[in-house]
Amino acid sequence: MAVIEVKNFKKSFGSKVIHEDVSFYVKKGECLGLVGGSGTGKSVLLRSLIGLEKPDSGSIEINGIEVSKYKESQWVLLRKKVAYAFQGGALFDSMTVAQNLAYPLREHSHLTSHEMKLRIESQLNDFGLAGTELLYPSEISGGMQKRVGLARAMMLEPEVILYDEPTAGLDPYNTKRIQELILNLKRKGVTAILVTHDMPTAFAVCDKFAFLKDKVIKEQGTPDQLKGKPDSLIQQFIEGNVL
User: Fold this and answer.
1) Which residues on adjacent β-strands are paired with residue 65?
2) In sequence order, which residues have a C-beta less than 8 Å from that of residue 188 and are 6 or more positions away?
3) Residue ranges making up the domain that contains 27
């Protein structure tokens, strides 16, 4: 059974149609690369999976349960299982790294202060961030901010993580570290959707792709099925011949 299944998803903002009939699924432990040109609504789909946008029609199923009509109180509970790694990290500037990681635990868990401290230390070690506990976001690099954002998204040990351009603006070294973190989470059984324009990263971590164009998914397949195939839209996208 698919962990995530989107069927016949339609979404408009006023008279602007974003998606006409989008369908895809992701199985447990898979990473789906959701790719396409700018403005094709990739982030709209991600945001819909955690209730920040509502489809006009169609369905969103998480573990076989239809969630698109959920109330906010239900979404709050679901967001413990489905985490969103925002493009810029979305850290609280007025909080230290440790306080940022503690935030979801304080809001959604019953851990003691000591248990939180141990969880935070373990997470920082796993993400290569040991020693940053007392630093503020402005005091660490962009690459470290991205990793702190990922670490915070994983604090509640979600089943699913949604990555929105996790390597945007990063140098090759930090891009490689993000790739390794995504692969490590996959090995732990975390299901994922990756929205990115960084195709080397997508091919490094994704099990399959869905290519968005003209308000629908035009092409789906595994990297082996798509890479190097002359008439593949994704191959043309890599070569800069299609938006």
Assistant:
1) 62
2) none
3) 2-81+158-238
Burial 65-102 (b: 16+ CB within 10 A, else e): eebbebeeeeeeebbeebbbbbbebebeeeebbbbbbb
The C-alpha atoms of residue 205 and residue 183 are separated, in whole angstroms, by 6
Q: Which pLDDT does position 228 carry in this prediction?
A: 67
- Length of the chain counted residue by residue: 243
Give the global pTM. 0.89
User: Quick one: pLDDT at residue 169?
Assistant: 84
234 shares a domain with 168:
yes
Confirm if 6 and 23 have CB atoms less than 8 A apart: yes
Number of domains in the chain: 2
How confident is the chain (243 residues) per 10-residue block, as mean pLDDT? 94 94 95 91 93 95 95 92 81 93 90 94 90 94 88 90 90 88 92 93 94 92 80 76 62
Q: Is residue 169 part of a domain?
A: yes
User: Which pLDDT value is given to residue 115?
Assistant: 94
Number of H helices, E strands in the chain: 9, 10
The Cα–Cα gap between 184 and 1 comes to 23
Q: Which residue bears the tokens 């903002």? A: 13
Q: State residue 146's pLDDT score.
A: 87
Q: What is the DSSP letter of 31?
A: E
